Amino acid sequence: xxxxxxxxxxxxxxxxxxxxxxxxxxxxxxxxxxxxxxxxxxxxxxxxxxxxxxxxxxxxxxxxxxxxxxxxxxxxxxxxxxxxxxxxxxxxxxxxxxxxxxxxxxxxxxxxxxxxxxxxxxxxxxxxxxxxxxxxxxxxxxxxxxxxxxxxxxxxxxxxxxxxxxxxxxxxxxxxxxxxxxxxxxxxxxxxxxxxxxxxxxxxxxxxxxxxxxxxxxxxxxxxxxxxxxxxxxxxxxxxxxxxxxxxxxxxxxxxxxxxxxxxxxxxxxxxxxxxxxxxxxxxxxxxxxxxxxxxxxxxxxxxxxxxxxxxxxxxxxxxxxxxxxxxxxxxxxxxxxxxxxxxxxxxxxxxxxxxxxxxxxxxxxxxxxxxxxxxxxxxxxxxxxxxxxxxxxxxxxxxxxxxxxxxxxxxxxxxxxxxxxxxxxxxxxxxxxxxxxxxxxxxxxxxxxxxxxxxxxxxxxxxxxxxxxxxxxxxxxxxxxxxxxxxxxxxxxxxxxxxxxxx
Length: 504
Hints:
There is one protein chain. This protein has helices spanning 18-52, 56-84, 87-104, 110-137, 144-180, 188-195, 200-215, 227-257, 263-269, 272-293, 310-330, 334-341, 346-374, 376-395, 400-410, 421-427, 434-449, 452-462, 468-487. The chain has 19 helices and no strands. It is globular and about 70 Å long. The chain is mainly alpha-helical.
């Protein structure tokens, strides 16, 4: 039996079944509330800095570590998704980020707050691969683009909700109250547990994979090492490769960047913690190939780092890196710019954010619809390029009206280039590694994207450049990286998910 989504001869919104709609709504709501819990922090960094008496650059740095831990949560969730199904990791992730946000609201010190906001990244990263796989695997192929756009657009609605609460309630509940509200998403787990069914594509693929393993001939060989020994061996290997990469980067980076980057910014980029994270991010691309040269058997989930999937994984990771550079250049310090430099009130700060994210939701659906007709890549490349020309409209002015108009308009272009991520990433990989692959590629981008908030703040505050110029440069650089990666990537429009085992 092959579980594949087929097209039917009637209007697309009548094609999905009730169970398919429920699975999609589970992913939609999980992602919206994930965004709510995460983006609240963008709106309250300045008051947190003032209450605890710490530099704004340090507060922004917690966002970086949150984003880096997303990779850990995403990879763990992706592995679980491919082993035990999509539902359970989704529920664990929602509980995780809800509890962390709630706990951060009780912080007696900045260190306490930073700890819970940073580990929130594990749950935040875990949500996307589980929710995207569950929603997209359950959806018919011909309308997957538009529903991918609306699914990803839930992030904009989550940010809109955070902005609304900030604009209307902040003066009454303060930043602590805004974090406490973050416990409410945990209620979504009840809906997922009792009303959402597991992905049929995954269930059938898992049955076939286990059947193939059962029927495979058992070679007369020494007893294979236990799972614990295997995992320990791979972890030791990863540690060794990461250490080597760390020292290579420490040696090469100053030479490569020395004549390009200003000395203080270079010192920030060459920080040991940053070099360690970059080395860790590159390790998966090196370790499996090195192990294969030594004759070591490669686990299924690491096949994405080996031919014929290696180039696909690499270009997908670079695409996500570019898009994260755009997003965090455009969004992360936008509220801080309005608060710190322009001294706008909570209502004035909330207004452009609300309008931007309202536009984002509908624009992601629109570009998803376009992607169903002209292809995934063009539907991302076109708004990315247009967004580069819109950014100066609101970054080169201090007038609230023009900032609001320009930032809202940007929601239709650079703000909407993320809509096809759920469809395009999940379509690029086989079912048995879809969770792991989409999780890794999506969150690999956070390694470099996570540098944006402290880098922009450093240039704006410590170097006196102000926020607009670094935000503009980051937006353009990120868009260029994303466009190049997409041009080197495969087109997947019309791909149908199958339960057939594709990795032997």
